[in-house]
Amino acid sequence: MRAVSLNEPREAAAPELAPLRADRIVVYGSRKLHGLWSALVSALGECVANPVRSAATLATATCDAVAPGEKLSLIGRFKLLAQAMAGLSLARRLRGDQIRYIHCHFAHAPTSVGMYAAMQLGIGFGFTGHANDLFHRRQLLRRKLLRARLVVCISHWHRDLYTSIAGERPAYRVIRCGVDEAGWRPAVARSDDERGSGRLRVLSVCRLVEKKGIDTLVRAVGILVRGGRAVELTIAGDGPDRNRLASIAGESGCRTAVAWLGAVDHGRVHELLGTADMFVLPCRTDRHGDRDGIPVALMEAMACGVASIGGNLPAIGELIEHGRSGMLVDGTNAEELAKRIAELADDAQLRMRLGEAGRQRVIEEFSTEANMGKMQAAIEEAIGGARPPGNLGTETAREESAV
């Protein structure tokens, strides 16, 4: 197996992934301009070595750019051509590795590069779509669905979306984007002494963008604070909405009740979950139509046994059964969210019951262990059932595209 990223990863790899990262391919290199030049040189080398195949791949990419079959900006069309060249560069670097299948994470730029590389190598490709890549940054999605040997759907809602775009296809497989439940152990309940002043501790972990519904959460905390409740909201994560959200906190009368931690690592998230009374992530559809799939942070909180409230979106509804494994709310309704937070705050037994049921839900359906076997079987089926010597496939890792 070879790991591939479009750009140099900005985050440290987990220890168990260190061998893959050490042998990874970075398509554009660590220095953007130098990396782009190296990728172009490699692509031209591929064209010289395999002119007929290269001409066919570039002809397909040109047709995709000229007539994509769905809405795509002029800039997006030029990006496709650049990504085809990146695909040729990747194919050049993979030759000789006995790669028989390329699987891509995120359906926009990573899948475009992986798709053209697979065409160039004469092998199959597949992808896993998530959220932003299917809406705000969508790129040639229908054709990718029609061409892919395997389309991993992280929810039944995703499968229905793909069916509405490209029809029902045997390539679709519902395989959850899971978490390592063994690594996210249940949080230890805090004692009365640890509770100190008795403040209700609410935690949220996410990128600070509109679709996460953090403005609704801040307003809900404002409602609770104005009603006389002692609430402490901790928000871990950063993003373009940070200043706007801080202003909303001030307007809502809860400025001192909100702690903004910025970006934190997984270890810190686990510590925060250990001191939280509940986890809240009221996701919604934003003004551009973008929405979450099933947020990993929500799965991690549930795996830790923390009672959780999520936005009432179709995919999240496959993770949380309202009133049984957590609660679902309208991510635009602060009054409703404040009511649900208060309900959990006033009933420790309900928090415990929802936390335990939420963890069990993750173990049964959303754990890494439960889904890795499904993923491996699906990839082996996509390459014809035979396991290639030493390589199952190539993973194109999550990184923002430079083209």
Secondary structure layout:
Layout: E1 2-5, H1 18-22, E2 25-26, H2 32-49, H3 51-66, H4 74-94, E3 101-105, H5 109-121, E4 124-128, H6 141-147, E5 150-153, H7 156-166, E6 172-174, H8 192-195, E7 200-205, H9 214-226, E8 231-236, H10 242-251, E9 258-262, H11 266-275, E10 278-281, H12 296-303, E11 308-311, E12 327-329, H13 334-345, H14 348-366, H15 368-382, E13 394-397
Parallel strand pairs: 1-2, 1-13, 3-4, 3-13, 4-5, 5-6, 7-8, 7-10, 8-9, 10-11, 11-12
Helix pairs in contact: 2-3, 2-4, 3-4, 3-5, 4-5, 9-13, 12-14, 14-15
Strand content: 5-15%
Spatial separation of the terminal alpha carbons? 25 Å
Class by alpha and beta content? alpha/beta
Please state the second-level CATH architecture of the largest domain. 3-Layer(aba) Sandwich
Rg over alpha carbons: 23 Å
Q: Helical stretch count?
A: 15
Query: What is the domain total for the residues?
Result: 2
Structure overview:
The chain has 15 helices and 13 strands. The chain has about 400 residues and is of the alpha/beta class. Helix 12 links the parallel strand 10 and strand 11. It is about 45% helix and about 15% strand. The protein folds into 2 domains: about 210 residues, Rossmann fold (3-Layer(aba) Sandwich); about 170 residues, Glycogen Phosphorylase B (Rossmann fold, 3-Layer(aba) Sandwich), CATH 3.40.50.2000. Helix 2 crosses helix 4, helix 4 packs across helix 5 and helix 9 packs across helix 13. The two termini are about 25 Å apart. The C terminus is likely disordered.
